[in-house]
Design goal:
This protein is an alpha/beta fold. The protein contains 13 helices and 14 strands. The strands form 3 sheets. The protein has an 8-stranded mixed barrel with strand order 4-5-6-10-11-12-13-14, surrounded by 5 helices. A 3-stranded antiparallel β-sheet has the order 1-2-3. It has a 3-stranded antiparallel β-sheet with strand order 7-8-9. Helix 12 links the parallel strand 13 and strand 14. The structure holds 2-phosphoglyceric acid and magnesium ion.
């Protein structure tokens, strides 16, 4: 039986320059899994806590105090590490040890186990619990890339909408898909420079352009970039939007406040606003179109747009209990999978399994504050995710895309996921 022989944590930095933790887990003295924890800027209120009150240092101290409980366990049983983490932290949201520690430890253990079995991480994860419901042949998720950023990911003057995304839904191979997103991103820069010759080429946290334009102008520019390349929106290439509506929601006023554009939406106006954007820009993907507790309003959008991936992120926070609520209310037909929202890998895979069993499509996603790790590319393939939301440019984003290209050359994954 393979055994964890060493666990080592350290402080490192994420793509925003904020401190985070990295954990190495060694199996049988040779197989080292190494993972560092990402962090979000627009964080759902029911997500796992990133770090306890003492920050990354406190998580590292807790790791040091508890290392001996991890040494000796079998990392090929994903449930064992989960069990240890749950013994140390019995809070529902990893408030004691920090979700970042649960994230880094659990994925590093799985990576070291996959190395000990000489399997790519995705194949290792597919072959054991808690994943049970999956297609027999793995397929590539479509890369869903942020081409224009605003909201919590970019400064004043940029759109209130957090992310305008591109999906190369006509691509037949993962390499074509990645290339298409890169072309749209590059063409969008030219479009933005034509609109505003003073555009500096500045980008938001995820590598999408951050122009001084409002929501409408930004969507127009993204659509024009696709059309300039000869694409018909909704055919070879489609746009998506992460509205990240909890950022705009003012619970006291019960209105969505669009500070930068200078208007407010009551609940009905928000539904009209979102529906209008989905229709006019032929969106294939609409994330968090309403705030994180608006299960009923989300279900209205889902009903109106059965062919759009009406996706929960802050709404479902990779939490199986909350996903059950969304399933009961028929709030969404797709859900974001971010392991660090759940905390540990086991929690996230349970969520994935529940989603699959209920016909909810998965979109595995990065965070705005990322590392150069590429484990989520494997997690996306392992969970039969339809899309992998990882950005288009920037070292920490490209790292995930390049991993998909490496997987392509292994010839173990056939074709693109059916959307
Ligand atoms: C989101 C994510 C990633 P953040 O809202 O979907 O794009 O952003 O990591 O800031 O929560
Ligand atoms: Mg989101």
């Amino acid at each position: 039986m393979p055994q964890i022989t060493a666990v080592q944590g350290r402080l490192v930095y994420n793509s925003r320059g904020s401190p985070t933790i990295e954990v190495d887990v060694t199996t049988d003295r040779r197989h080292v899994g190494r993972v560092s924890a990402p962090s979000g800027a627009s964080v759902g209120m029911h997500e796992a806590i990133g770090f306890p009150s003492g920050g990354p240092e406190a998580s590292l101290r807790i790791l040091d105090e508890n290392k001996t409980r991890m040494v000796g366990i079998d990392p090929t049983d994903i449930g064992e590490m989960h069990h240890v983490l749950r013994e140390i932290d019995q809070t529902p949201n990893y408030a004691r040890i920090g979700g970042s520690l649960a994230f880094a430890l659990s994925i590093a253990a799985a990576e070291s186990a996959s190395l000990s079995e000489d399997l790519p991480l995705f194949a290792f994860l597919r072959s054991r619990p808690p994943l049970s419901t999956h297609a027999t042949q793995p397929k590539f998720p479509y890369p869903l890339g942020n081409v224009l950023g605003g909201g919590a990911h970019a400064g004043p003057g940029t759109p209130d909408i957090q992310e305008i995304l591109v999906c190369p839904n006509g691509a037949k191979t993962i390499s074509d898909a990645i290339q298409t997103n890169l072309e749209v991103h590059a063409e969008l820069r030219r479009v933005l420079q034509r609109i505003d010759p003073g555009f500096t080429g500045g980008k938001g946290d995820e590598g999408g352009w951050a122009p001084k334009l409002d929501n409408e102008q930004s969507l127009e520019a993204a659509a024009r970039a696709c059309e300039n390349l000869g694409f018909t929106l909704g055919r070879e290439v489609s746009l998506g939007v992460d509205f990240a509506s909890s950022t705009q929601w003012d619970a006291e006023k019960r209105r969505y406040v669009y500070d930068r554009a200078g208007f407010e939406n009551d609940v009905n106006a928000q539904l009209e606003f979102v529906s209008d954007i989905i229709t006019r820009y032929k969106l294939i993907y609409a994330e968090d179109a309403v705030h994180e507790e608006a299960f009923e309003e989300m279900s209205y959008i889902r009903e109106c747009f059965p062919d759009v991936l009406v996706t929960g992120d802050d709404l479902t926070v990779t939490n199986a209990g909350i996903l059950s609520r969304a399933i009961d209310a028929e709030s969404c037909n797709a859900a974001i999978l971010k392991v660090n929202q759940a905390g540990g890998l086991y929690d996230a895979l349970e969520f994935a399994d529940l989603a699959a069993a209920n016909g909810i499509k998965l979109v595995t996603s990065h965070r705005s504050g990322e590392s150069t790790d590429s484990h989520i590319s494997h997690i996306g393939v392992a969970t039969d995710s339809k899309m992998l939301k990882v950005g288009v440019v920037g070292g920490e984003r490209v790292a995930k895309l390049n991993e998909l290209l490496r997987l392509q050359s292994l010839d173990l994954i056939c074709g693109m996921a059916a959307l």
